Amino acid sequence: MTSKPRGLQAELASLTTEAFRPELAEIDRLATLDIARLMNGEDSGVPGAVAARLPQIAAAIDAVAARMARGGRLIYAGAGTAGRLGVLDASECPPTFNTDPAQVVGLIAGGPEAMVTSVEGAEDSKELARRDLDALKVTADDSVVGVSASGRTPYAVGAVEHARALGALTIGLACNEHSALAAAAEHGIEVVVGPELITGSTRLKAGTAQKLVLNMLSTITMVRLGKTYGNLMVDVRASNDKLRARSRRIVALATGASDEEIEKALTESGGEVKNAILAILAGVDGPTAARLLEESGGHLRAALAAAGT
Q1: CA R_g for the chain
Q2: What DSSP state is assigned to residue 169?
Q3: Residue 28 CB: number of other CB atoms within 10 A?
Q4: Catalytically annotated residues
Q5: How many whole angstroms separate alpha carbon 36 and alpha carbon 16?
Q6: Tens digit of pLDDT for each residue in 224-274?
Q7: Which helix (H) or strand (E) holds 171?
Q8: How many CB atoms sit inside 10 A of residue 222's CB?
């Protein structure tokens, strides 16, 4: 065995997410329901671990929102489960918030193939992370979030280091304390969920914690950018029958208007929910609603105030 594998073995052994739990050494002999209860009990502690880092999460969100308001992008970078969760979060922003697909981007070590299969050695390459970010032409207006349960994955650490050197905002999301990833980033978020039920299987509690934090990063950023009106998705993209029905429901909830008024407003606004709501509540036509929203930076409440509503 070479010194590098021995060193890595020692490094992994020091990580909370890799810790062995002797009390669970015979769970394979338990009844299925008992294992399910154990697993459910483990998962119940994840929200508390996230809650302990809410101030750091909120600070990171405000910084991301400020950059995105200037036209910047939100870019996730990770390997394995962490990378897949970033790609998932990014892919759900266009239909939910009507963002351009280039606004929120998920990078996974090894590229699209790595979404469904392991790409040998990809996570160990800082150079690969640099190349992936350079392909996106990262600028100082962008925000790059490195995601890694261990907090040591070279791809995630390399992405944050390179992004920071380029002047971008950097966030390091890990599930171990004193991680290299958090140390490399301007905003370090370490959600410590403890050892996994299955030793080292960080797709479990660590993956759940990462999903919760990524939900917050993207969702609350979009709230700050005016992509919602209250808790309504007023920038939803009506790309299928379900979303078209949801669009009508959102306009109804926001305005209390009749079905006839809603259909008229949506037709005149080209199906844009935010424009239709403004047209109904402010009593203006479609073009005026569009102008008011543009002058208000897309914020519906500001546009309503400008219309004197």
Answers
A1: 22
A2: E
A3: 7
A4: 92, 123
A5: 22
A6: 999 999 999 999 766 678 888 999 999 999 999 999 999 999 989 888 999
A7: strand 169-174
A8: 23
Instruction: State the alpha helices, DSSP H only, in the chain.
Output: 3-13, 32-43, 46-51, 54-69, 80-91, 93-97, 126-135, 154-165, 180-184, 205-224, 241-255, 259-268, 273-282, 286-295, 300-306
3-class state of residue 78 by DSSP: strand
Assessment of whether the complete model's pTM goes beyond 0.85? yes
The three-state secondary structure class of 162 is: helix
- The torsion angles phi and psi of 86, rounded to 5 degrees, stand at -65, -45
89-112: per-residue pLDDT in tens? 999 999 899 899 999 999 999 999
Q: How far is CA 66 from the centre of its chain?
A: 16
Strand order in the sheet with 104-108: 104-108, 74-78, 143-148, 169-174, 187-190
Token pair 């907090």: residue: 151
Question: For residues 43 and 203, what is the distance between their CA atoms, to the nearest angstrom?
Answer: 12
H or E element in which residue 144 lies: strand 143-148
Residue 1 to residue 116: CA distance in whole angstroms = 30
> What is d(CA 183, CA 164) in angstroms, rounded to the nearest whole number?
12
User: How far apart, in whole angstroms, are the C-alpha atoms of residue 137 and residue 11?
Assistant: 33
Q: How far apart are the C-alpha atoms of 206 and 218, rounded to whole Å?
A: 18
Beta carbons of 88 and 217 less than 8 angstroms apart:
no
Residue 197 corresponds to which tokens in the numbers above?
Answer: 């039920």
Q: Please give the average per-residue pLDDT across 117-146, as a whole number.
A: 93
